[in-house]
Amino acid sequence: MINFKNVSKMYPDGTPAVESLNFEINQGEFFVIIGPSGCGKTTTLKMINRLIPLSDGTITINGKDIKEYDVHELRWNIGYVLQQIALFPHMTIEENIMVVPEMKKWGREKMKNRVRELMEMAGLEPDTYLDRRPSELSGGQQQRVGVIRALAADPEIILMDEPFSALDPISREKLQDDMMELKRNLKKTTVFVTHDMQEALKLADRICIMKGGRVVQIGTPGELMNHPVNDFVEEFVGKKYRNPMFDIHLTEIMLPMNEKERSQASSIVVPISTSWKGILEFLSEYDQLIVEKNGEKIGLVNRQAVIHYFSTKLQDRGLANE
Ligand code: ADP
Question: Domains plus CATH for the chain?
């Protein structure tokens, strides 16, 4: 869908920002780019909607070189969310969200319905918020409006550059959960930049790890954890999340899940390869974990299940008092 072929970027002052990027982002995929500060994440993202011109190579979207697209049309079809979104202060929330649909000349009825639908999906009560001005919303709510605005005109692609990093941990987690919900419902091709591995593990279908302007490894969270190509990836993903005995442990305590549990707000998706240490750390923050294997959500683990598992093990070994 989005194809990078030998893409490089050298800034006019001679800084080589990215070099020889070659990868493909699939239709409907949630693709997370992660790496240390200055490794070229933002440059990579902004080249997709031509905010930054390429020095070399080609990027194609649906087989067509991005240079061949009319730049306005290209940007209208690519939603863009920044770390600190700038809503127009004098416009209402509804007017802010309708900017791009209006430019695309959508009918009034269609726009209004779409706005309400997205507001509800993103956890903002339309009747309460649509007529407010941005200053009457919290930072987290404004950021949520930014996500809705990016989705409003039904773009094929969404680019997100550290969209939640300026938020407090609670709003951040809530937005990540909403993002998972939107991901499930809308299945948009999303390119998401972050420096937070937990966020990447939670959201990504595939993660692209960059260093010094180059791609080090691309893979599903499980692939990166179990088959890191080098020490850098291993360090970056975190040894603590690896567990060579994974299949036995997690499947032993996993519970089946129903639709309601699948969409529960306070759960995080973890690969089946997550270690015990990782599981316990996640469970100190989240009520339950959804376990994923080969991209499929196969069950859930909650605190009770873990406690039950350990108490049984202790009993088996005669270590429990009762
Ligand atoms: P990241 O998003 O991973 O932090 P960036 O893509 O912003 O990295 O930057 C990659 C490299 O390019 C860094 O060395 C950065 O200093 C440099 N860079 C970014 N923007 C410019 C610019 N406008 N002019 C010159 N160098 C830049």
Answer: 2-246 (3.40.50.300), 250-316 (3.10.580.10)
Q: Ligand 1 centre from 43 Cα, in Å?
A: 7
**Ligand 1 neighbourhood includes 42 CB (under 6 angstroms):** yes
Q: What is the pTM of this model?
A: 0.75
Rounded distance from Cα 316 to ligand 1 centre (Å): 56
From the alpha carbon of 195, which atom of ligand 1 is closest? 3
DSSP code of residue 258: -
CA-CA-CA-CA dihedral for 176, 165, 21, 231, to nearest 10? -90
Ligand 1 contacts CB of residue 9 (under 6 A):
no
Q: Tokens at residue 121, please?
A: 């999906």
DSSP, residue by residue, 149-198? HHHHT--SEEEEESTTTTS-HHHHHHHHHHHHHHHHHH--EEEEEES-HH
Percent pLDDT > 70 in the chain is: 92
Q: Amino acid identity, residue 270?
A: V
